Amino acid sequence: MDIEEAGTVFTDPRAYADDARFHAATALLRRESPVHLVEHPRFNPFWAITRHEDVMAIARDAETWINAPRPALGPKPKDDVRSDIPIRALVQMDAPDHPVYRHVSADWFKPSGVRRLSGRIEELARRYVDHMAGLGGECDFFADVASHYPLYVILSLLGLPEEDFPRMLKLTQELFGADDEDLARRAGDTGFMDTLLDFFTYFKTLTDDRRANPGDDLASGIANATINGEPIGDLEAVGYYVLIATAGHDTTSAAIAGGLHALLEHPDQWRRLAADPSLVPTAVEEMIRWVSPVKQFMRTATEDTTVRGVPIARGESVLLSYPSANRDEDVFENPGTFDVGRTPNRHMAFGFGAHYCLGTHLARLEGRALFAELVPRVASIELAGTPAYMETLFVGGPKRLPIRYTMA
């Protein structure tokens, strides 16, 4: 593999479903071209940033590097229509709007707010391990457990009715799986836009209902929020709901399923965790580093600048590669080794700086609760087939994880 071929992994959804290929390519880029210009006929040019230090430096400098107009990598047609999509979520905002809108839900996701959910999360973890125990010793861990458990947590927080949860799961998979033929509604941008329209229709109805009948759930908090003294706009409210209802569970599902896959590929680490349950918190951090469910965000330069001595002009975009940063040899000892006791673990899977993930504490609590419940109750576990990963450019993890197990 040469440098130019290595740069193509960021534009190929199949690369994120092929761990060996992706990490071989990004290791080469970190060594030989850590600020690498990628030019591809389907994409507007961008610079791929692959080292931890550079990703962090760009993420913390929200004045030089902004989200607009290209918050995430997509092909040219998506870039061309971004300004025509009226729904705005936090990931598309910069200051001064971003901190004001982020404040709307910040208290719900602070450690103190998340701790209030711990009993409900532990109950749901137990419920899904019970469900797994009742499946007769074989299941698809992603489809049967990991995709549903965080979904129930976040949608319960929002206050959505349980009968709507399957619909939200399907729409989320269509949104993030738009480049995967198993998950996309239909090929191309039309399916993506239709999925967004379905989200808008659902959440516009929810907004109207919570304004007429406010409750004590997060959906009511968003619907009735004020921004600079004015009621939040419908499009901004819908953008908020879409972000929380999708990224709020899909990334955690990916980390949980990918984390179990890593444990099964490293049975010594499963045995180590089973022998010492106090390792669950560090094990979950390692799962999040290992999977890095959010593959990239983009930033655009507001002025002429340099990264690692490479000139980048105002208006040019960089891709922050979180999976690459999380395998950086300068930061992590033996980064290609899955280690449930890894300390310290300076991974960047939740981002950094002004756009640090709102749901960080919730995701950690969900992962810890599930594995604290699961590991002691499993007597034996192994793969029962070949896992498959989502083909994606943005967010993803396993889409199939067949396992065989006996419960203790």
Q: Could you explain the architecture of this structure?
A:
Belongs to the cytochrome P450 family. It comes from Actinomadura rugatobispora. The protein is of the alpha+beta class. It has a single domain, classed as Orthogonal Bundle (Cytochrome p450). Helices cover 49% and strands 14% of the residues. The chain is built from 17 helices and 14 strands. The protein has helices spanning 3-7, 19-32, 52-60, 76-81, 97-109, 111-115, 118-133, 141-146, 149-158, 165-176, 189-212, 218-223, 234-265, 267-275, 280-291, 322-325, 360-377, and strands at residues 35-40, 43-49, 65-66, 138-140, 226-227, 230-231, 296-301, 305-307, 310-312, 317-321, 378-383, 388-389, 398-400, 402-407. The protein has a 5-stranded mixed beta sheet with strand order 1-2-10-7-3. The chain has a 3-stranded antiparallel beta sheet with strand order 4-14-11. Strand 12 (388-389) and strand 13 form a beta hairpin. Helix 10 (165-176) packs across helix 13, helix 11 crosses helix 13 and helix 13 (234-265) packs across helix 15 (280-291). The chain is globular.
Q: Largest sheet, order of strands side by side?
A: 1-2-10-7-3
- Can you count the helices? 17
The CATH architecture term is: Orthogonal Bundle
Helix-strand makeup class: alpha+beta
Radius of gyration: 21 Å
